[in-house]
Amino acid sequence: MPIAQPPAPSAPVTTHLPKIALVGRPNVGKSTLFNRLIRANRAITHDRPGVTRDRMEGQVRSRGKQTFAIVDTGGITLDAHAAVAQGPEGIRGFEAEILRQAEAAMAEAAGICLVVDGRDGLTPFDEHLAAHLRRAGKPVLVVVNKVDGVEREDEMLAEFHALGFPLLPVSAAHGHNVRVLEDEMREMLPDEPEEEGVEEGDGAEDDFGLGAEADADADADDGDAEGDNAESGEPAAEPKAPPYDPTHLRLAMLGRPNAGKSSLVNALTGQQRMIVSDMAGTTRDSVDVSFESGDKTITFVDTAGVRRRSRITDSVERYSVNASLKSTTKAHVTLLVLDALQGVTQQDKRLVDLLDERKTPFMVLVNKIDLVPRKLMPDLEASFKGMLEFCPHVPLLYLSAKSGKGLDPVLPLAERIRAECHARVGTGQLNRAMDEVLTRHQPPVVRRLRPKFFYLTQAETNPPTFVFFVNDADRIQTPYARYVEKSLRRMFRIEHAPMRVRFRSSHKKKGE
């Protein structure tokens, strides 16, 4: 029986800018250089080799100069025959997938920067990769990293001349020659002018992590092998939430390890864009994957799996988890992916509580239902529905990334949630709504007095926030507040977006 597949989208659209690919063996500082060039700490950097696996894109911008994109890739290990060789422990088992991702980045790139480690000198992996790049037929610049000053440039560059490519010494950690590197990269770009774009930042201003020290963890991930900070000397402005643009939808994938987030990204985009493995924790960085669907650009932010804090003992995983949770603050809608085979776990409930508490627009996708026996489905559905008892507005979908079952409603529903977040209700509707709420069900008497409602206003959108002015807000009890929210959702057709309903004490009616 053929496997059902979702409708194939058009070609991926990560950016319309020309691209430069950063490639190299593991642990030469590609991610630190990537962060330095884009002036943001997006890629996780660590002294352990093999932290980066999937490719990640960013933009290099300088005032008065051409903007272009750069692509960070995982560490490549090739033998003398251009076949994958066993890499260090961090990428062991992923070598072929990392090479495939890097080759896809190189195929889209106008030029390639081969990053090497000046302190380690020329290694066989460097030589084999250089030979492989020579056959690509594209401009190649060898970037000799970890050269901290001009006094040692000649000594540390000497043996790399054997590769036969132009050389440039830099220090990603300290910023030495990084602006010169930008100019050299621009020399590899096409001559014709390209449209410049603006990329949304992935860093978040506030912590959305599992613990109080998560901010410190996020700061710690900026160092390279020597513990240096990757922050640029010319930091970018704080990222701000983008204005409402109905042609662009940004979706964050969130969930426990091995729930199938990367598989869902591949299935929904029709691309083998993310490395997929049965091994939990395959994805580490928060990776953007964009494609066009009709007249819209949809960007998935695939994130690392989020485990219980008590089980996180690895520093790289701690950085990944913090980045995953922060990604939800920059997405328009979060897709919480759960594993049908695992059922409802305490961590799933905790993630739902976090998202609901923050009023994050989200939906729950229960993956791998093709592996659940039919007779167990009623109990499974009851348990997941019970998990959402206190946020019944959240959509719950059952699907399978592997078979394609249940994928069709995901993107339309995400677009609907985002549109509901920006709903604006007119004054006349608000007045009629308050009258209808009170007519259907008066607030109960509390301490021998019934609360009086004066007027209703919408304070803001995203999420829709409604404020009732009453004589004594302390007399509004929780069950009645839930009734009011449910009524407003029905009247204003805000079915799935988060909503805030507040009651404010006021002794006068509006206009008095």
From TrEMBL:
Binding sites annotated in the UniProt record for GTP 1:
24-31, 72-76, 145-148
- Binding-site positions, GTP 2: 255-262, 302-306, 367-370
Q: Where is the composition biased (Acidic residues)?
A: 190-231
Q: Which UniProt keywords apply?
A: GTP-binding, Hydrolase, Nucleotide-binding, Repeat, Ribosome biogenesis
Task: Write down a Pfam family by its short name.
Answer: KH_dom-like
Ranges for domain EngA-type G come to 18-193, 249-422
Spans annotated as Disordered: 188-248
Q: Does the keyword Electron transport apply?
A: no
UniProt xrefs under Gene3D superfamilies: 3.30.300.20, P-loop containing nucleotide triphosphate hydrolases (3.40.50.300)
Query: Which GO molecular function, any one, fits this protein according to its record?
Result: hydrolase activity
- State the family named in the UniProt similarity comment for this chain: Belongs to the TRAFAC class TrmE-Era-EngA-EngB-Septin-like GTPase superfamily. EngA (Der) GTPase family.
Question: Which PANTHER family does the record associate with it?
Answer: GTPASE DER (PTHR43834)
The record describes its quaternary structure and partners as: Associates with the 50S ribosomal subunit.
NCBIfam families, A to Z = GTPase_EngA (TIGR03594), small_GTP (TIGR00231)
Q: What is this protein called?
A: GTPase Der
Give the encoding gene's name: der
